[in-house]
Amino acid sequence: MAATLYPDFPPKLSPKGEEYLLHNLKDWSLANGLVVRPVPALAPQEGKNPDILASVAPVTIFPSPFPRSCFEEAQAIQWTYNKLYAAIAEDEEWLAAIKCPSVLTHLAGSKKVQQVLATPSSPHLSRFIPSVRESKRLEETFAAIYPLDDSTAGKEAKKIALDPEKCKGYVLKPQREGGGNNIYRSAIPDFLKKLGDERHWRGYILMELIEPPALKNSILRDGVVKSGEVIGELGIYGVCLWETRSKDDSAPGEKTRGEIIENYEAGYLLRTKGRESEEGGVAAGFGSVDSVCLVDV
Questions:
Q1: pLDDT of 109
Q2: DSSP E strands, the chain
Q3: Of 236, 268, 211, 220, nearest to 10 (Cα)?
Q4: For the purposes of burial, counting CB atoms within 10 Å of the CB of 295, is it exposed (0-12), middle (13-18) or buried (19 or more)?
Q5: Do the Cβ atoms of 175 and 203 come closer than 8 Å?
Q6: Which residue blocks in the chain are alpha helix, DSSP H?
Q7: What single-letter DSSP state applies at residue 124?
Q8: Averaged pLDDT, groups of 10, the chain, 297 residues long
């Protein structure tokens, strides 16, 4: 989907029309809890009231065009992702009672577990999703992710990470969330060299960058509207409730894989940022909350 497909998007607004839209956008955001704590390091300080505890979260003025087929595929595959995380969590821990979620369910979604599943030619996915059709469908959504250890894949990843040209297509990620922690492109080699001992490299994964085509939109941030090229990242929420059998209920040698009681897709989040920005966290002040305008391309 190229930006040139939508030369008239977003629509031009008169000053009066923009004022009306911004007024209603702010009111809706405040009424529906779309607020964040001010980020001192990123927000301009002049004229700020230090007693303000929250402000309207960064948000796009218009919904961004998004391919209908891609959106529907993301919704449909969430069901299989839920099965995958449930299977991983059960494989890690015998649960005596329902935990929502357990510590190991959180670990199942960590970057390191994602790397083990998404490293090219990884044999691990089929362990949790035996269906060839379902596992193949999941693999098609993976970006290549590599360890930085002494495995064959890890050694290849180290070569990529230290190569001044090849590293430009990758991002280095630690086991942290919230934005501002990743190392991008040409900054990777020097960062790894400064870490020194290669044993410290194992706390990071090397991921192939996803390069979505840019669109045009306007973003309201700290009361100021900025327009230009933007890129978005779609996330689909899922709900999964499962019951794990106790070890005593299983036949000798049998896996204690329990029954999934509820499994469904539960909404989405589209985070949009300026094309020049690397990070995307909304709460950290990098991205903005967006919505989709489904289009057929």
A1: 59
A2: 35-36, 55-56, 59-60, 64-67, 145-147, 170-174, 183-184, 204-208, 215-221, 224-243, 259-274, 288-290, 292-295
A3: 220
A4: middle
A5: yes
A6: 15-31, 68-92, 103-108, 111-118, 125-128, 132-139, 152-162, 188-195
A7: S
A8: 62 91 94 82 52 84 93 95 85 43 58 85 87 94 92 95 96 76 94 92 92 88 88 93 68 63 95 78 70 91
